[in-house]
Amino acid sequence: MNIYSPPKDTSESANSNVQQQRDKHNTLFMYNLLFVDILLKLRRLGENEKSKKFLEGLFLKESILNNHELANCFIKLGVVTFELQQLDKSLEYYNTALDLQEKLGINQNFSFVYQALSQVYLWKEEYNLPLQYSRKSLAVLPVDHRSRSTSFEVIDDVYRDKKHLIRALHYRQKSIDTRVCLLEDNHSQIGIAYNNKELIYEEKQKLSRSNEIL
Fold this sequence. Notes:
Helices cover 77% and strands 0% of the residues. It is mostly helical. It is globular.
C-alpha cells in the first residue's frame, strides 16, 4: 500500500537556506569585529608590528571574507604600516583596499582611503600626489561632512612645506571654517576652533606686514 507523502514546501526549504546563510554571515561578521577589537587593543599598547602580523595571518587568509570586509582589513594594515613608517607597504595596502572598494562601486567609501593616501605621500614628500588625493577626497565627500577639514589640512601642509604660505593659510582657514560650521555651539572643540581662526588672522597680518617691508 502506498502511503501518501505531501510534497515538501520548497519555499520553506529556501527560507531555511537563506536563514542559514544569514546566520553564517552574522557569525563571520562578529568574528571580524572581535579581531578588529583585538587589533585596536594591540595598537593602543604600541604593538603595531604584532597588529600587522595578526591581520596578515588571520584576516587575509580567510577566503570567506567578502570584498567589503577584505577592504577594511587592508585599510587597517595600511594604518598600522603607516604608523610603523613603512610607507611603501602602507601605500600597497591602501591601493589594494581602493581596488576592492572600486569593485563595490560605493563612492563615499573612497574618501578615507584617498585621505590616507594623501597623508602617506605627504610624508614621502611627493607633493603633487597629496594634492591630487585630497581633491579626490573632497570630490566624493558631501559639503557638510566634517572629514573635509582633514583634506584641507593636508593641502595646507603641502603648501606650507613648499613655502607657499598664503595658500597654506587659505586652506588652513577652510579647514577651521568647516569645523566651526559643523560643530554645535556647546561642543568641546568649538572654542579651540574659534581660537585657531584668530591665530590664522594674526598670521595673515604678519605675512602682510612682512611683504610690505620687502
